[in-house]
Structures are given as structure tokens and as C-alpha cells.
Write a structure and sequence with these properties.
With 468 residues, the chain is α+β, with helices and mostly antiparallel strands. It is built from eight helices and 21 strands. The strands form three sheets. The chain has a 16-stranded mixed beta sheet that branches. The protein has a three-stranded antiparallel beta sheet with strand order 19-21-20, with no helix packed on it. Strands 17-18 form a two-stranded antiparallel sheet. Helix 1 crosses helix 4. The radius of gyration is 25 Å and the shape is globular. The protein starts with a helix and ends in a 9-residue tail after the last strand. InterPro entries: HATPase_C_sf.
């Protein structure tokens, strides 16, 4: 071996790693306003992936926010040698042999770089199991500060040397249920502190869906030392005899609250919507501000995708920034898979709604939005979506008993008794609603006050979002 060539090969490798990191961080800085919550989902994804190969294992997560730092911990599986190489050299553990099945969303790849929105310097602590079965503790800083390859290459080497220096062999059993893995981010500025707080807010709003979709996550605790609060979310069980309602228990400073999620799934895809429970039954909550697509974790930016319920699939092929999915083209395998998953979700929706329409469920107007997705035409085959998703959903919805009547408790199908132009004002709808109360079988004015249309018109008395 010629040592000078081998040395050059290693330097080339480090420069390639540095170039990839610099480019990715540069791109992230441009999208920080829409990515302020993604750091939490990337860390949670890594926690989930740590137990992906152990069917009976669940993971607990803890996030601690201080004034000046944030710590993410989990009690999942220990690091492998591949994980350590991946986290320093930025190579995802999902890069596996072709055709090999995996349950991992992808650990420590380019997505992990998103967490540097919080801080360019991370302290990583954990336990490593080597290929020969030995166990080691480690704790080292990972520094991604630097605008050029020349600045970053020495820090990659420094990360490796710091890791090796920190390694200590474990000679006796350790508590596998303890929070042995942690990532600590120093928040040096008010901007970084704000990013952390915004991320926790988004995380708290959407974690009930994630817990519903991913049983491998047992519970999540958020300890806010700034506000002196502690909130835990965990999946308890099915809410009642109808097993498709799951409830998440939210505990804040010993006060408990139940969050109800209606959900249905098959081998590839799941759909869900949050419910409010009272003495009358279940009422669908407004989900207009909720991302409509999840790839295990929310694809932030899909709030206006406009599928009537939230759709989750581990098998979605998302865009690079995880703010949508590819739906343009007829030959690309990833696009074909995404389309098939949406077709599956449509069938799940039809089956589920037909079932709950006959039960004590109300406010269906919150889960019948079938407008076209508001996304770039670069990613959407509008004709395909209109013919295969939108039309199918509309033809189904219009025949379901989901319109609540003013004078009766039972629900009816949509009743077409008058069309107005699309630009009708809501005030007129209220007045018109009072006039038509003299007739029978009128949709409930109070519960259907937000008027929208059917096929480019507005159907009085409903608030079904069935418009282009």
C-alpha cells in the first residue's frame, strides 16, 4: 500500500462528507421558518428506529427544555457501530441491500442534520454494542460549525478522536430501560431558544397522531424548565367497544386529559381524525391546520393537501424537505407507490365513514374536505387525483347519512333543495337558514353554519367542503 495515496483517499472521503453537510445546512437555513419543528420529529424518528428490529420492544422519550439548552433522551436500543459511523459521517442506516425489508425510517442520515437548526454543536451520549458483543459508554461533541470544507474537515476528524477518547468499556450489566441515549443542544441565542419552543409547541399538537400511528412509542414526556411544566402523552387503549377509537392520555402536572383519535388501517396505510367526546357521542374536530400526510411522522406543509382525514404510511416517498409526496408521472416507481397508497386510503375512508355514519358521531363536516390539494403542479398529476381520488370521495360522501337535522337527532343524506352562486355570503346563508326552518328535514343551522359547495355550487344547509 502506498501510504500517500491512502492518506489522500481518506482526505477525499472527509471532504465529500464535509461538502454534503455544508450544502444541506445551507439549504436548511433558507427554510428555517417552515422547518422549526422538524428537529423534534427527526430525533423521535431515531428513537423509534432504535427499536424497529425488536417487535416486542417499545421506547419512551423525554425532552427537557432549559433556558439555554434542550436535551432529548430515549431508552431505546443501544448504538451499533453503523450508527456511530452514520452519525459522524452522515450516512443513513437505511442504506441497506437492495430488496431487503426494513422497518426503519432512516437513522442519522441527512434528516438528522435538520436538528442542527437548534445548534451546530451537539453533545451525544449513549451505549455502543460492537460487532463482537462488547459494550461501551461514550460521550462526545459533534461540531458542525463552519462555512467551508476546509473549516469542517478537521471537525469531522475531531469528532472521531473525541468519540474514541470517551469510550469506556462496560464490565457489568447496565439498565436497558434507563434513558441511556441523549442529544444535548446548546441554545446560544434568542432565535435558537425560540426555535426550540416553537418546535415543542408543534410537537405537542401533533404527537397524539404519531402515538396512534406508531405503537412502538410508549410515551413522550416534555419537561419545560422555563415554564415549570411537565406533560406526558401515552397511548392507553381503545376508548370503548368500538376498537377504532384510540385515546391518548395527556398528563400535565398530575391533571389528566383524554385525547380521542378515530383511526383505521391496513398493512400499508392508516387514516385518522381527532374527536371530541361528550354526552351525545363523538364529534369530529376541525383538522384544517393539521398536516394531512404523515410518513410515520408529519410532513409539515401538507396542511392544504385536503384529503378529508389524516393519512399515514411508512411507505410514502416524500419530497426531500418532507413537505409533501411525489404524485407526478406514470412510470416512476415511487410515484406509483404514492398513488396506490392514496387509493388505499380512499377505500379505508369509505369503509370507516359508512360504519360510523350509523353511530353516534357528529360534525362530519370537519372530515369531508375534498378540494384539490394546494401543491405545486411539479409534484401533482391533477387529472389523476381529480378522477381517482376527488371524484370517488365526492360520489361516496353525497350518499352518506352525515347531515345533522335541526329537528331530529338522526342524520340524513345530502338533500339538494337549492343552489346559489359560489360567491354567496355567509350572512345570507344564516338568514336563509332561518327562513327554511319552516320546512321539515332541514340540515341543522347551528351545526352546519359554514356553507360550502357541491360541484362548483353551494348546497344550502351543509358545510361539506366539496369544491375545487
Amino acid at each position: 500500500m502506498i501510504e500517500s495515496i491512502e492518506k489522500g483517499r481518506k482526505e477525499d472521503g472527509n471532504r465529500s462528507i464535509a461538502d454534503k453537510i455544508i450544502k444541506r445546512l445551507h439549504d436548511l437555513e433558507k427554510t428555517v421558518e417552515t422547518n422549526h419543528g422538524r428537529w423534534a420529529w427527526e430525533l423521535l424518528q431515531n428513537a423509534k428506529d432504535s427499536v424497529a428490529t425488536e417487535n416486542d420492544r417499545k421506547v419512551s422519550v423525554q425532552i427537557k427544555l432549559y433556558d439555554g439548552k434542550i436535551v432529548f433522551k430515549h431508552n431505546g436500543r443501544r448504538f451499533t457501530e453503523t450508527d456511530v459511523r452514520g452519525i459522524i459521517n452522515q450516512i443513513s442506516s437505511k442504506e441497506i441491500e437492495e430488496d431487503e425489508e426494513t422497518k426503519q425510517t432512516g437513522r442519522f442520515g441527512t434528516g438528522f442534520l435538520t436538528t442542527h437548526i437548534l445548534s451546530k454543536v451537539i453533545t451525544i451520549q449513549g451505549i455502543l454494542e460492537t460487532e463482537n458483543g462488547d459494550f461501551y459508554k461514550f460521550k462526545f461533541p459533534l461540531d458542525r460549525e463552519g462555512k467551508t470544507t476546509t473549516q469542517l474537515v478537521p471537525k469531522i476528524e475531531k469528532a472521531w478522536s473525541s468519540f474514541h477518547e470517551s469510550v469506556t468499556k462496560i464490565t457489568q450489566d447496565y439498565d436497558r430501560n434507563d434513558f441511556n441515549t441523549s442529544f444535548t443542544y446548546v441554545l446560544d441565542s434568542e432565535f435558537q431558544q425560540a426555535i426550540a419552543e416553537k418546535g415543542i409547541k408543534e410537537f405537542s399538537q401533533l404527537i397524539p397522531y404519531v402515538l396512534t400511528f406508531i405503537p412502538a412509542i410508549e410515551d413522550v414526556t416534555i419537561i419545560n424548565k422555563v415554564k415549570e411544566t411537565e406533560v406526558t402523552y401515552n397511548t392507553k387503549s381503545h376508548a370503548d367497544f368500538f376498537e377504532q377509537v384510540t385515546y391518548i392520555e395527556r398528563t400535565e402536572n398530575n391533571d389528566k386529559e383524554k385525547i380521542y383519535i378515530l383511526n383505521s388501517s391496513n398493512e400499508k396505510v392508516a387514516i385518522a381524525a381527532e374527536l371530541l367526546k361528550d354526552e351525545d357521542g363523538y364529534k369530529f374536530k376541525n383538522i384544517s391546520k393539521v398536516p394531512k400526510l404523515f410518513c410515520d411522522f408529519p410532513l409539515i406543509g401538507t396542511e392544504n393537501f385536503h384529503f378529508p382525514m389524516v393519512v399515514n404510511s411508512f411507505y410514502f416517498n416524500p419530497l426531500t424537505e418532507r413537505d409533501g409526496i411525489w404524485l407526478k408521472g406514470d412510470t416512476d416507481e415511487e410515484v406509483k407507490e404514492n398513488k396506490q397508497l392514496l387509493l388505499n386510503a380512499t377505500e379505508l375512508y369509505k369503509t370507516l365513514i359508512a360504519e360510523v355514519a350509523e353511530l353516534e358521531y357528529f360534525r362530519f363536516y370537519n372530515i369531508v374536505n375534498t378540494k384539490m390539494p394546494v401543491i405545486s403542479e411539479k409534484y401533482l398529476d391533477a387529472d389523476w387525483y381529480s378522477n381517482n381520488i376527488q371524484k370517488v370521495l365526492r360520489d361516496f360522501i353525497i350518499h352518506q347519512n352525515i347531515v345533522e337535522l335541526e329537528n331530529k337527532k338522526r342524520k340524513e343524506k345530502l338533500m339538494i333543495f337549492g343552489f346559489l352562486q359560489v360567491n354567496i355570503q355567509r350572512k345570507f346563508n344564516k338568514v336563509f337558514g332561518n327562513i327554511i326552518m319552516t320546512f321539515t328535514q332541514i340540515p341543522c343551522v347551528v351545526k352546519s353554519i359554514f356553507i360550502n359547495g357541491v360541484y362548483s355550487h353551494i348546497l344550502i344547509g351543509t358545510n361539506l367542503h366539496i369544491q375545487n
